[in-house]
Design goal:
Low-confidence stretches: 130-134
Number of strands: 0
Shape: globular
Number of helices: 7
Oligomer: single chain
Largest sheet: none
Length: about 130
């Protein structure tokens, strides 16, 4: 249980992504929310890059190791959410473009993590906000 608590930021993101993936949008005019074409794909990219980057950072600060298998979890969760939309709801649908956007988010997180680590910016992140839970 203590390990789960140490990943509370990732868990919060996971809950938010799950909610946003499954809540009913039939009463919302989603066209008004689109700032540009394919805006929803950009949102998928941001959600999964945020989740993946946060998982990597939280794990790295606790172990000083890279654990890229955590990214398989992010990728798998994206697939699970698409399947859940198709199988568990009658108001959402699965799209392969969403899977591509989710995967792109995971890959972006890897790139950002490597840049932060190489440039030693990762030590600045230790000051705020990730280290607050250590």
């Amino acid at each position: 249980m203590n390990k789960l608590i140490s990943y509370h930021k990732s868990i919060i993101l996971l809950i938010a992504i799950t909610y946003l993936s499954l809540f009913n949008t039939t009463n919302i005019d989603t066209n008004k929310l689109e700032l540009f074409p394919h805006f929803d794909k950009f949102v998928h990219l941001i959600m999964y890059s945020s989740l993946s980057f946060t998982l990597l950072i939280e794990f790295y600060f606790r172990t000083q190791k890279n654990k890229f298998s955590l990214l398989l979890f992010s990728f798998g969760w994206g697939l699970l959410m698409e399947l859940a939309q198709k199988l568990l709801t009658d108001y959402r649908g699965a799209e392969w473009q969403d899977v591509v956007a989710n995967t792109s988010g995971v890959l972006l997180a890897i790139l950002l993590f490597q840049i932060f680590k190489q440039k030693k910016w990762i030590k600045r992140l230790m000051l705020y906000p990730f280290s607050k839970s250590l």
